[in-house]
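We treat protein structure as text, and this decision shapes the records that our systems exchange. We quote a single record here, exactly as it is kept in our systems:
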Amino acid sequence: HNKMGRRPARCYRQSKGKPYPKSRYCRGVPDPKIRIYDAGMKRADVDFFPCCVHLASWEKENVTCEALEAARVAANKYMVKNAGKEAFHLRVRVHPFHVLRINKMLSCAGADRLQTGMRGAFGKPTDTCARVQIGQVLMSIRCKDNHEAVAEEALRRAKFKFPGRQKIIKSNNWGFTPYKREDFLIWRKEGRLINDGAHAKLLTHKGALSKRDACEIFERPAKICGIPNHAQ
């Protein structure tokens, strides 16, 4: 049994061909190295961490599960050391669903009679990776405003674990929500937001009145064509 070493990620960096996920046809896929996608205070309420920083990929490529795990460990370690383990929530935003294959060649003595070369060259599963687009967010950290610089440095250190180029982006939104910070505060004052873990649900003027409390009934829509509609 010839156990080959792990191939370097440069062999699998390009996103070529179709996605090849684990399925009932593609069996025997090894477990991805990354098992934990959330670190820090993941149960913190949405109001607790207003600041959010993203690490976005600036290339279309494959990112292996090993790279994701190494980046998560590096960012988490820096945040815990410099901000405290209760002072942030880190989330890995991509999952390695694409299966990588290897066409194993026997390289021991006497293998020349068994070797098939390029006959039946469809390989066996070896590893998993995430297919990443340009501008896609790889990791996000939400924290208090005073730890923004620490979060940026943690993501800068995580960049060294990935191939290709990445950008660190300071979000204009409140935490992990899709709402701008100023809109979030106005809607919070109006009572339009219902906390839902790390997110918040936005109440609009539609829906059955019988299912709502008096404080949850509004005459104006929260957004018109996706643009926030605040009272003048």
Remarks:
- DSSP finds three helices and twelve strands in the chain.
- The mean pLDDT is 92.
- The first strand starts at residue 38 and ends at 40.
- The radius of gyration is 23 Å.
